[in-house]
Design a protein that fits this description.
The protein is mainly α. The chain has one domain. It is 93% helix and 0% strand.
């Protein structure tokens, strides 16, 4: 259960981080 939550948190963090990076690169 804890592992699943951990992977979910990682996936959410990546989802938030990727758009931010792409915006930084664009600008």
């Amino acid at each position: 259960s804890n592992q699943r939550w951990r992977s979910t948190k990682t996936a959410v963090a990546a989802d938030l981080h990727l758009p931010m990076r792409s915006l930084e690169v664009k600008n």
